[in-house]
Amino acid sequence: MSNDAATTSPLRPEGAPAADEAPTRGLGVSLPAADTRAKTEGTFPYASDLWAEGLLWAALLRSPHAHARILSVDTSAAREMPGVRAVITHEDVPGDTAYGRRIADRPVFAADTVRHHGEAIAAVAADHPDTARLAAAAITVEYELLEPVTDPERAFEAEPLHPDGNLVRHIPLRYGDPDAVGEVVVEGLYRIGRQDPAPVGAEAGLAVPRPDGGVELYLASTDPHADRALAAACFGLEQDRVKVVVTGVPGATGDREDPGFQLPLGLLALRTGCPVKLAATREESFLGHAHRHPTLLRYRHHADAEGHLVKVEAQLLLDAGAYADSSAESLAAAVAFACGPYVVPHAFIEGWAVRTNNPPSGHMRGEGAMQVCAAYEAQMDKLAAKLGVDPAELRLRNVLATGDLLPTGQTVTCPAPVAELLEAVRDFPLPSLPKDTPEEDWLLPGGPEGAGEPGAVRRGVGYALGMVHMLGAEGADEVSTATVRVQNGVATVICAAVDTGSGFATLARQIVQDVLGVEDVRVAAVDTDQPPAGPAAHGRHTWVSGGAVERAAKMVRTQLLQPLAHQFGMSTELLQIADGRITSYDGVLSTTVMEAMAGKELWATAQCRPHPTEPLDASGQGDAFVGLAFCAIRAVVDVDIELGSVRVVEMAVAQDVGRVLNPAQLATRIEAGVTQGIGAALTENLRTSRGLVRHPDLTGYALPTCLDAPDIRIVKLVEERDVVAPFGAKPASAVPVVTSPAAVAAAVRAATGRPVNRLPIRPQAAVAAATARG
């Protein structure tokens, strides 16, 4: 966020104390992360930094083909190389030969068929990384090439690519009257590309065999207990003989770890009896882990003459790639949110997720919701143009509010201030045009050294509204467990919730500070000896794990206050903890927390589990979601209509956050989400040709950099607390990822006067639109 943006940010509410008067601990404070200094100085230990005595190095042999039958695998040349300690294939897997977080359909090693480019076929352990790579390259595989199925529409008629068939899931949503029609109808066909998580650090890990025949895996895992379950099943071991220790996670915006990378690592350690390390190359990272689902969307919107929505019809086709992964859950989100945060009396949505020979798809921030947001917001722009209504005004006539129904039949019971969010970004002052600030250099869409001419630049303003669900969906059990222990004035939080950059470790410290008044709070390292806390996704750790920490801290608080209350003949409810002191309502009792805790060791363990949900039924109906979060974004772009280049000038954001728990951390999460969405809108597309990934590196895959980031103005944060959520807070980073691509596309439409129906936006589309416009 720019300096100017900071002055307009609502992160410090009106009437709040000045910085020198504000509290320095507890909820609502911008407490810095405990590992900030180590990460800044480069001393933070990531998985790629791990080492062990007697270390061996691993390498994987991956398929160069998207679809092929394996006729033979000859590992003899690799086994005979000096320094090679083990070579394993599918024949060496002692337990389950296939895995999957939801559906176990992906083989650890391809046995008879290769289904996507980069699929693992064999693994090698050697005493030097170069030896391991050379040995993997020396393995000879004889293939019979098969025709790849890369068009998801062809998957319906193509021969089965997998024993489970090509269809992962079909959801036919039926809501209202199928014969309803509107006076105005608009249609559109939209395509969303394949976005990669592109983690800062590629996958790496260390496997260490144990004397009891088990193994310890040191990984940048985001769901250690699920990873342990998969590993134990693959290794043919009881779960208590497999331990996952979470190392430093270098960021995560989706499924951070590819289990197909972890499982060979553990198998090699068990085979050799030595520690084994694997550090993936960037190419291997692109080929192995899951990506955002490429999606084809067909829409028809019906509205009355005043622009009120009557009916939405849509067909959504998600490309799951070779295996199912989380495609069923992504499809549920896409179908449920296909109409957006709008009141729609009648909706008929058909959604499919299918297997192809393309790279695997899976969980990424806002999966399913991002793709449909780009499409339904394009439809709203088309309706506005056809009716001659301002795009923001048309949206305001249709926005969802608390008490309305989703097309799934679920009532929106959480705060839904969608109109307030949209009005905030609509009314925020627009950035100055270059002609109004002639003394400043104008940054052209081509960049500081761009070849464009000012006369070819057109400015556009676009709006988008997005929504995401919180926590898991469709009956997922979201329980989390935490322990809070206090001794010698130091509080320790034990919880298996992985901080992937979401700031959970900092939040846990703030919660304990707030409840117990203890300054020194530490968060223990995460491993699977602790009770499970679930995956780091959908803001669940803020809600579920944070809730467990709060409950445990409150139990410790009761243990601390009960003796004092008994001594003074009052209940604990009449005592409060603030600024490190314990005081009674009448001022008779006043002591420090440290004095009250002297010589004591207090601890408590608690769980948090939100209210249950249910799967969508055969007609797409059901209370599938715990809660919802909303966002409005206004994008301002400059488009060079001769070069087709686009520069995002400003993104004005208003977001439904429930409660601000850490202002600085929240601003960072929103800015990061907006920037990731801009990447999906303009540059990020993992391109394939006949299923083969083209340029699987950070030169061929264009991530937005600091030079591409616009001014991000957080113009309003609505703090209307969700009463069923601990602290009332909502997830912060996913909903701006969902909304910002649609806003950028809307702004480009406004600048060029032509539809934008594909993400990322291709330069030639802007050029063609400009030429046609004349």
TrEMBL record:
Residues 1-10 have a biased composition (Polar residues). This is Molybdopterin-dependent oxidoreductase. InterPro entries: Ald_Oxase/Xan_DH_a/b (IPR000674), Ald_Oxase/Xan_DH_a/b_sf (IPR036856), Ald_Oxase/xanthine_DH-like (IPR016208), AldOxase/xan_DH_MoCoBD1 (IPR008274), AldOxase/xan_DH_MoCoBD2 (IPR046867), AldOxase/xan_DH_Mopterin-bd_sf (IPR037165). Residues 1-34 are annotated as: Disordered. It comes from the Bacteria. Residues 41-147 form the Aldehyde oxidase/xanthine dehydrogenase a/b hammerhead domain. PANTHER family: XANTHINE DEHYDROGENASE, XANTHINE DEHYDROGENASE SUBUNIT D-RELATED.
